[in-house]
Write a structure and sequence with these properties.
elongated; alpha+beta; 40% helix; 6 helices; four-stranded mixed sheet; 169 residues; Rossmann fold
Length: 169
């Protein structure tokens, strides 16, 4: 439970954050609870079809996700978001958008950057032996190379996300 009173905020925002909480129904209820009547809840959630969704599929191929925790990517599915944000919401607008990502180094270094600084990938690498880490690294580097739109030694790509804007009843 969030440490805030009911109806504490005019605007509640989560950009690729709340989607990773393990109990999505509770997340939805808390977002609605802390938003005042007429206020907005705005979320940006990675989609299963987008680049980050593909990244998670590769990680899941090497390290299966926990069986009892719903995929965070379900927050990027329109039907799921409509279901989760139906109670207490007067209006819900959903739009798929592109999030530009840029790294001033090549795809192989992007893998290392994510391995070091991105929690889900860090945990995946730590769960594997050396051979498994090498295989995961190769698959991820291939994904970044396939989607890289730069040719100058840097890495640039867009990743689809679902923008959800809900108005509290």
């Amino acid at each position: 439970m969030l440490p805030y009173e009911d109806a504490s905020f005019d605007l509640v925002v989560s950009l690729f954050g709340a989607m990773f909480a393990p109990r999505p129904e509770r997340v939805a209820a808390e977002l609605v609870r802390v938003c005042r009547s007429g206020g907005r809840i705005v979320m940006g959630n990675w989609t299963p079809e987008g680049f980050i969704g593909q990244l998670f599929k590769i990680i899941g191929k090497h390290v299966p996700p926990p069986p009892l925790v719903p995929s965070p990517l379900l927050w990027g599915d329109e039907a799921t978001v409509r279901e989760r944000l139906r109670d207490g919401v007067a209006e819900l607008r959903l739009s798929k958008r592109q999030y530009p990502l840029y790294y001033p180094f090549p795809p192989s270094e992007v893998v290392e950057h994510f391995r070091t600084y991105y929690g889900p990938m860090n945990r995946a690498f730590n769960a594997l032996n050396a051979a498994g880490q090498d295989a995961l690294s190769r698959d991820l580097e291939q994904l970044w190379m396939e989607h890289n739109s730069d040719t100058d030694g840097t890495t640039r790509y867009d990743s689809e996300y679902l923008e959800a804007v809900a108005v509290r009843e």
